[in-house]
Model the fold of this input.
Amino acid sequence: MAPVAPATSRPCLAVVQYDGAQFVGWQRQRDGRTVQAEFEAVLERLMGRRTTAMGAGRTDTGVHALGQGVGFGASGRWGEDPDGLRRALNALLPRDVWVERVHPMQPGFNARQSALARRYRYVIGSDDAAHSPFRRPYEWALGRGLDQAALADAAAALVGEHDFRGLASAGQVKPHYRSRVALAEWAPRTDGAGVTFTIEADRFLHRMVRFLVGAMVDVALGRRPLSDLPRLLSATDNRAASPPAPPQGLYLVAVRYPPDLYAEA
Done:
């Protein structure tokens, strides 16, 4: 086994996009293809040693990313040439992973713990063409319209600080289950083919966005009343939750960090 990258390596942040369709998620696992394993394999080739890549968010099977934050240590000449490092990464990474930018960061940067906020987007197709093989892998092919006013009211109930145990996967053991939601809004798609949901918060529980979307879609379809949302936000388990929305409609859009952590700032 190659040695681990030394502590003297330069901390870097890569802004990474990936198509999650052929991955079992970001995080390295015993079985299945993961983005982390692919990224770390390329880092090892470039750095000449085993180098850990830490993601800001642990996206699940089938979930995509437009702005995943990936932290790692760059040694040797790569620590002084972020543009060259980005080109080298993209030359070696598989076609379904792409590095948009590489930023040199200040000492102490941690891709997960340093994040101030994460933003996700969920895409729903309301037309019949959503079932096209060119769209189905990248949105929820619901194929029917949704009550826009009901969606807006449901999203408004999420803003602020809440305990989201009732709208996330069961079995999570954490010091607390609260998140501060700064933004939660639905908007018509620019192509007129459905709606998108955007949410930004300081932290997310496992499958929280998918459970939220599943509940709000049920409200918009008249399957459950809007008054259920406050009850779900005070629940201590997810037994009353709607089924989570499918993974392929979900995108990690961006991760926000303190400006003073960027070395080039």
